[in-house]
Structures are given as structure tokens and as C-alpha cells.
Design a protein that fits this description.
This protein is an all-alpha fold. The protein has a single domain (about 10-170), classed as Ferritin. Helix content is about 75%, strand content about 0%. It is built from 5 helices and no strands. Helix 1 runs antiparallel to helix 2 and helix 1 (about 10-35) packs antiparallel against helix 3. The longest helix has about 30 residues, at about 125-155. It is elongated and about 65 Å long. The termini are far apart.
């Protein structure tokens, strides 16, 4: 006997795609973390910040895998593309946060599409799960990162306050 009830094949397939996208985002954040850990960069607060973001994305993938299993689906991961992130040292901090902002917006958009599929498949429980576990957090992350970029842009404006940028990233 299987626990599967009102869990469509389309939802199962699309959820598996989302799990892989969460792992891809985790890998991207991990690459950013390791960039700031290089001996010629050495910004440990950003190492910690982006490593935490990487772990959160992996946690999201784990939650989604558990949900897939709870609904009677089978987790099938697709391959994750290797990636290289090239940052310009003169603007690397802002560039890293711009990458993070695009990652969060992309994941949010993907989750909204998944929510639409859940709705089309007549699965209010799946819609509720996505809303309660992910969508609010995504909006908050997008807002937080946008504010970080705004502060960094202000500090790097005409006076290019490197000391101010250093002090600011210590608060993250």
C-alpha cells in the first residue's frame, strides 16, 4: 500500500526539478563562499555569510525531498552543472550580492511556477506547503539582499568608502 493520494505525476516531476535547482543554488553560494576564503581575498564574514546561504539552500532541498517522499513520490535528481563565478576584485563584494539577488529571484520565480502547477493539479495542500515553508522566506531574502546592495552602493559611491564597506560587512 502506498501513501500517495492526490499527488500528480506532474507535481512529482516538477518538484524533483526544484530539488535540483535548490542544490544548484547551494553550489553557487558555496562557490561564492570559497571565493571570499581565498588567501588573496580573506573576507571571513563573507565566507560565513555565503556558506550559511549555501547550507540554507541544501536544507530547502532536503525539506523538498522529505515532502516528495511523504506524498508518495520518488526523488530523482538531475545533474547539476559545474559553475565558475568570475568576480572583479575591485567590485567583488557588490557583484557577489548581485549574483545572490538573482539567485533568490530565480528560485522565487521557480517556486511560484511550482505553486501554479500545484494549483492547476488541484492540490491545495501542496500550495499551502510551498507558501508556508518557502515563499515568504524567499521574499524576505530578496528584500534583505536588495538592502545590502543598496548600502554597499551608497558606501562605494563617489567617495568609495572602503572602510565603511569593511565595517558594514562585519555586521552581516
Amino acid at each position: 500500500m502506498n501513501c500517495r493520494q492526490n499527488w500528480s505525476e506532474k507535481s512529482e516531476v516538477e518538484l524533483n526539478k526544484q530539488i535540483s535547482r535548490e542544490y544548484q543554488a547551494s553550489l553557487s553560494y558555496h562557490v561564492l563562499s570559497n571565493y571570499f576564503n581565498r588567501d588573496d581575498i580573506g573576507l571571513n564574514k563573507l565566507v560565513d555569510y555565503f556558506n550559511k546561504a549555501s547550507l540554507e539552500e541544501r536544507e530547502h532541498a532536503d525539506k523538498l525531498m522529505n515532502y516528495q517522499s511523504m506524498r508518495g513520490g520518488i526523488v530523482k535528481l538531475s545533474s547539476i552543472d559545474p559553475l565558475t563565478i568570475e568576480l572583479d576584485k575591485s567590485n567583488d563584494i557588490i557583484e557577489a550580492f548581485q549574483i545572490a539577488l538573482e539567485l533568490e529571484k530565480t528560485i522565487n520565480n521557480d517556486l511560484l511556477e511550482l505553486h501554479k502547477i500545484a494549483d492547476e493539479e488541484g492540490d491545495p495542500q501542496f500550495c499551502d506547503y510551498l507558501e508556508g515553508e518557502f515563499l515568504k522566506e524567499q521574499v524576505e531574502s530578496i528584500s534583505d539582499i536588495s538592502k545590502i546592495i543598496s548600502v554597499l552602493n551608497r558606501l562605494s559611491g563617489s567617495n568609495n568608502d572602503q572602510h565603511g564597506i569593511w565595517n558594514f560587512i562585519q555586521t552581516l
